[in-house]
Amino acid sequence: MKRFVVLVLLVFAFGCAKRTATTVPQGMETQPQQKVSEGAKSAGQPGGEHVSEQIAKETRTPTPMEEAKSIFSDIHFDFDRYNIKDDAKPVLEKIAGWLSKNRNVKVLIEGNCDERGTIEYNLALGEKRAKAAKDYLVSLGISPARIATISYGKEKPLCTEHNEECWAKNRRDHFVIQ
Amino acid sequence: MKALRHSAFLIFSINVFLLLLSFIPILFCSPETAEAKIYIDITAPAFKRFPIAIEDLSGPHQGQEIASIIRDDLDFTGFFQNLDTNAFIEGPDAPFDPKNWIGFGVEAVLKGKVTINSEIVVETTLYDPVENKTILKGNYRARPEFLRAVAHSISNDIYKAITGEDGIFRSKIACVIVGKGTKDIYIMDWDGGNLRRVTAGSLDLSPRWSPDGKHIAYSSLSGESWRIYLLNIDTLKMRQLFSSHGMCLAGDFSPDGRQIAFASSKNGSPGIFIMDTSGSDVRRLTSHRGIDVSPTFSPDGSKIAFVSDRGGSPQIYIMDADGKDIRRLTFKGGYNTSPVWSPRGDKIAYVARIGSSFQIFLINPDGSGLTQLTTSGSNEDPSFSPDGRYITFSSYRDGSRGIYIMRANGDGQKMITRRGITAVSPRWSPMIR
Predict the structure, then answer these.
(1) CATH code reported for the domain at B172-428
(2) pLDDT value, residue A32
(3) Nearest-angstrom CA–CA distance, A7 and A5
(4) What angle do CA B302, B305, B306 make, to 5 degrees?
(5) Is B261 helix (H, G, I), strand (E, B) or coil?
(6) What's the rounded Cα separation, in Å, for the pair B101 and B129?
(7) Given pLDDT bands bounded at 50, 70 and 90, which one contains residue A65?
(8) Closest CB to A119 among B197, B205, B225
(9) Could you tell me the CA-to-CA distances from B23 to B20, B26, B146, B257, B345 in Å, in that order?
(10) Residue A112 or residue B16, greater confidence
(11) Could you identify which of B11, B172, B263, B335 might form a hypothetical disulfide with B353, taking C-beta atoms 3.0 to 4.6 angstroms apart as the criterion?
């Protein structure tokens, strides 16, 4: 009987399940700008407390995290391949340069695939893509202990249309600073 | 039709009780005689469908529902031909009279009655109108919510009485259903009935049945690692067996149920590992610079088939269960994945990329007998029924991805999940009686 209640609850839970949306609250969008002014202040920019954000932006040095935003861009792969393409190498070199300057930071590399191909093989393929980037960074002198990998296979596509443009976007490594 | 009618005439009396002690109702069968007359030999290379009439059971409307489920069960096998109910002369309440059936060429007639109080009680009789005799009597009891299980039990008893083989009508199919940003494991009857969710992770993949049908191993994304869990499908309790960064995926139970082969990127590239079902004694079976994934045991436990890109593209390979003597099985095409061994060991089903679609193929373990089973839409994730006569798979057709079943020669392809549900990765359970 007890199990029956569980079954009924499960069916009920399925019927009514509401998934929490993962949208970013609107307030979040203003966050980076606040960080910019804080960064400017802490870096000892002229103008003291009364300096406007605009002036701070123009004259300060970007913080390492701001710098990282432009450096840690996705790298892309050919269909069913996990070799690092030539156009991805400069990206990885910049990432390695940044990581060697910021030694207390770890990075997670997320390997992804397009929707074509079987679920399990793609999970392995995504891992090979993440590992390929990791190996490249290690070859440039970054400690393997600072780099973790995870494969999402074809489970977390960036783009959900069914065309080559979209597939190309999804065959990627994404870097997350930790 | 084989001329088997001269054989000794037998009556079975089967009393069946569906208990509620378990999520899957348990059956107790006590046939009074063990010797069976075989009406059709389904192992013969060519046979005619066995003409049968399934009357609506008398009593409340559930009698029609049960009869309808039995007709669908028998029809899908390809071994039975249901007489159109519109042609029936004899009503459900009328006593059996062979003269009402012989003219239609019917060789077996099922009649019965249903009563429902706190329990559903079904009494059935399977008649032979040609010899005017009783083939089988059945008596079934269960809580009313197990109506479909009762119907499938009746189908199993009819199937056994006519063919001499065990039916698969009480077996289950596990699958993954895609929600908004989630994937969960579900279990359903082999015909798609009684769909129910058994996991509530965020991303649960690749359900695999234990040989006793009581557990499912599956893979789940948890934060920044993949984990393999063992789920008890009666209690819904789960236990973590393995965890790693990168990826890990449940592969297959060994036929004795003691070990699980799986893929993991622990110590490097995705490779094939084996562990016992408590998650200990983890050993690596394959090791190379590329991808090894999706291991499946041969039914005798001596071999493992798996996918590897060691030759430059994903292909099916076979090795001994200790990782030795690796040889390539598939050579045609540049993308062959998802191997699964048939229960009799004589075939391996897998998925091949053909142009821009994926199709299901069969091949013999020696590399001969390559046969394409599907051509419509794009098809993946084959898994054999426990008797090896049927295959479940996922298919993208007509704008929707769902779970299908077909006979092992590709005939009778039929969607069993509802349209609007996106379902993948079906796995057929072992025999459940």
Answers:
(1) 2.120.10.30
(2) 36
(3) 5
(4) 140
(5) strand
(6) 7
(7) confident
(8) B205
(9) 7, 9, 10, 20, 30
(10) A112
(11) B335
* Selection from B122, B92, B124, B88 nearest residue B106 by Cα: B88
* pLDDT tens-place string over residues B331-344: 999 999 999 999 99
Task: State how far the alpha carbon of B152 is from the alpha carbons of B16, B68, B107, B236, in Å.
Answer: 12, 11, 21, 24
Task: Give A44's contacts (C-beta < 8 A, 6+ positions apart).
Answer: none
Alpha-carbon distance of B256 to B211, in angstroms, equals 7
Architecture of the domain whose range is A67-170: 2-Layer Sandwich (3.30)
Q: Compute and round to an integer the Cα radius of gyration of chain B.
A: 23
Residue given tokens 């499960």 in the structure block: A10
Domain ranges of chain B: 12-163, 172-428
Query: Confidence class of residue A57 from pLDDT cuts 50, 70 and 90?
Result: low
Spatial distance between the Cα atoms of B102 and B131, rounded to a whole number of angstroms: 10
Structure-model confidence comparison of residues A50 and B317, the more confident one: B317
Residue (of B169, B103, B158, B105) closest to B134 by Cα position: B158
Cα–Cα distances in angstroms (integers) from residue B19 to residues A1, B27, B144, B353, in the given order: 11, 7, 12, 45
Q: What is the DSSP string of A3-39?
A: HHHHHHHHHHHHHH--PPP-PPPGGGGGHHHHHHHHH
Q: What integer is the mean pLDDT of A153-174?
A: 94
DSSP string, A78-128: -TT--SPPGGGHHHHHHHHHHHHH-TT--EEEEEE--S-S-HHHHHHHHHH
Contact indicator for B218, B231 with CB cutoff of 8 Å = yes
Q: Which of B235, B245, B307 sits opposite A149 (nearest CB)?
A: B245
- CATH topology for the B12-163 domain: Rossmann fold (3.40.50)
Q: Give the pLDDT of residue B82.
A: 97
pLDDT tens per residue across span B64-106: 999 999 999 999 999 999 999 999 999 999 999 999 999 999 9
- What's the start-to-end Cα distance of chain B, in Å? 28
What are the residues whose beta carbons fall under 8 Å from the beta carbon of B425, sequence distance 6 or more? A119, B175, B176, B205, B206, B207, B381, B394
Q: Which residues of B touch A151 (CB under 8 A)?
A: 226, 246-247, 265
A121, A131, A154, A177, best to mutate vs chain B, most B CBs in 10 Å:
A121
Q: How confident is the model at residue B43 (pLDDT cuts 50, 70, 90)?
A: confident
State both tokens at B354. 């053909």
Structural contact between residues B181 and B194, judged by C-beta atoms closer than 8 angstroms:
no
Shortest distance, CA B315 to any CA of chain A (angstroms): 11
**Chain A residues within 8 A of B180 when measuring between CB atoms:** 19
Rounded CA-CA distance B33/B25 in Å is 24
* Res A60 pLDDT > 90: no
Mean pLDDT of A156-176: 95
CB B318 within 8 A of CB B302: no
Cα–Cα dist B149/B18, whole Å: 8
- Residue B98 DSSP class: T
Q: Is A24 on the interface with B (CB under 8 A)?
A: no
